[in-house]
Amino acid sequence: GFLVLRDIMEIYGMVTGKAGKSGYGSASTAEDVTHSIDAKHLTAIITGGTSGIGLEAARVLGMRGAHVIIASRNPKAANDSKEMILQMYPNARIDCLQLDLSSIKSVRSFIHQFLALNVPLNILINNAGVMFCPFQLSEDEIESQFATNHIGKISSSLFLYNKTTLCMTQIKSYLWYVICELVILWLNIF
């Protein structure tokens, strides 16, 4: 009865732009949500930061002063995104590192490049992914969509989690962490 109706009304409010308990709703922009944030002391890695939500996250975090690292399999697209953000916000701190999540070799290379920057990791936005691609094996002989959307994200997240000081809630469940560790051991990735 009542609980269901309340939930329906809350969802309707979200869809129509009504602010929720946080003070923000579907009509809120990224600028609205981050208006009081000074991110100059933060470093963010954004996978898939060359289009869509990833690019918007890179733009807004760059605008707020964060050191943004766009991790992309396409260096040209990453540099184009960087240039676009710098045109809007000349003082933005944007770096681009190549990362193809379907390749364990690329994940390892990315991790080494990131660690060489000697910066903390405060925000990790795992935005990159593929969908509806034809069946194909990655260079590691893993189905490419599974390799990109799961193995690459899990291995890069866990390796970053283990090797850097994180101030985030990237891995929320200990059970999930253990499962991911077992997958990595099984694949003998690191």
TrEMBL record:
Family annotation (Gene3D superfamilies): NAD(P)-binding Rossmann-like Domain
One Gene Ontology cellular component: chloroplast
Compartments in which it is found: Plastid, Chloroplast
Superkingdom, taxonomy of origin: Eukaryota
Alphabetized SUPFAM superfamilies for the sequence: NAD(P)-binding Rossmann-fold domains
Main location: plastid
InterPro entries in the record: NAD(P)-bd_dom_sf (IPR036291), SDR_fam (IPR002347), TIC32 (IPR055280)
Pfam families (UniProt xref): adh_short (PF00106)
Keywords: Chloroplast, Plastid
Name of this protein: 3-oxoacyl-[acyl-carrier-protein] reductase
Organism for this UniProt entry: Brassica cretica (Mustard)
